[in-house]
Amino acid sequence: MKGMRLLTVVGARPQFVKAAAMSRAMAAHGEISEILVHTGQHFDPGLSRVFFDELQIPEPSVNLGIHAGSHGEMTGRMLEALERVMIAEAPDLVVVPGDTTSTLAGALAAVKLHLPVAHLEAGLRSFNRCMPEEINRVLADHISTLLLCTTETAVNNLRCEGIVAGVHHVGDVMYDAILFAARSLGRSRVLDRLGITGRPYAVATLHRAETTDDRQALREAVAYLKARTGDYAVVFPVHPRTRDRIAAWELDLGEIITCDPLGYLDMHRLVQSAVMVFTDSGGLQKEAYFHRVPCVTMRSETEWVETVAAGWNRLWKGPDYLPRHDIAAYGDGHAAVKAVEVIFDYFRCPAKVHFILSS
Asked: Taking the alpha carbons of 62, 65, 67, 69 in that order, is the dihedral positive or negative?
């Protein structure tokens, strides 16, 4: 049997982390070759290049350079460009990690060419259809052949939507990435650069559209962070879109310590020694847990319900933390290996998915 050709579509910071773990597992497999396609959705060096360097991700085979415009415009341009790439490369399967515009465009382009799709981090639900990420997740799940889930909660979410074929609980590839990077965190000098060595501090991030595109919502979030500076320093790596909104609306950050977006190693070194994390990010909620740092999610819901149930996370306007315990569902650091095995097993016997559907 010939080897398997996988085409992976990435474009945004959290996808690079997932792709790093998956690319290592594919390379170690021996019978899989990967075509890595970067849509260009995140193009700033601090949001893209540094992740490829620090996580030792192979250079993309193709970089489409698509990063400006509305959701609809970007999705359309990506669809057109990805279709051309997929026709030229003729992969056996397309992998789409996460919940970004690149995820949706990659899944749509593949399924319209009758290529099977594997959605990594399938089944997550915030149940807030106002979030573009939620729409991307739902649509990608309903057109994917293989659904690679981080937790049993995600598996159950899919079952409730009638999706049972091709569903697999593999664990969390972002945990794999943390374990890989852990040996390098000591090289980071970020605490010295920010002048917080030896001081108690919290880490804050805000970047989601429902926070940054609404003046009152962003004003309220900033006020919440400013109020925390009476207890400890608050370090705020500011996403470019968030920085633009803060400047345009002349929001006062008070004593909050700001910096540009950080690379993967610096960000994890920062979180590792923090007393608290405040974020509207999905991935950082989990990464705070990986470092066993309490998190406050600055949203009205979270897709990572396990972190709340385990007492490591809470909603900023919700109840206090529940009693704490560890989360077994995220796996043992071999989620990418399991995901790759599921994909290769499908390649060898695609009829298995249909058998599951009919059973």
From this structure: negative
Query: Under a CB-based contact definition with an 8 Å cutoff, are residues 140 and 119 in contact?
Result: yes
Mapped onto helix, strand or coil, the DSSP state of residue 37 is strand
Phi-psi region of 74 (alpha: psi -120 to 50; beta: other; left: phi over 0): alpha
Contacts for 16 with CB less than 8 Å, ≥ 6 apart? 10, 48, 51, 52, 55, 57
User: What's the predicted TM-score (pTM) here?
Assistant: 0.90
Instruction: Find residue 276's DSSP bridge partners.
Output: 202
Using only C-alpha atoms, what is the Rg of the chain? 20
19 within 8 A of 64, measured Cβ to Cβ: no
**1 band by pLDDT with thresholds 50, 70 and 90:** low
| 79 contacts 86 by C-beta, under 8 angstroms | no
Position 358 scores a pLDDT of 31
SS3 62: strand
Give the CA distances from residue 1 to residues 26, 134, 140, 221, 343, in Å, rounded to whole numbers and listed in that order: 17, 38, 29, 55, 15
User: Tokens 């360097």 identify what position?
Assistant: 53
> Which residue of the set 169, 207, 239, 291 is catalytic?
207
pLDDT tens, 168-220? 999 999 999 999 988 899 999 999 999 999 999 999 999 998 899 999 999 99
Reply yes or no on whether 207 is catalytic. Answer: yes
Q: Helical H runs in 161-232?
A: 173-181, 190-194, 209-212, 215-228
Q: Give me the amino acid identity at 197.
A: T
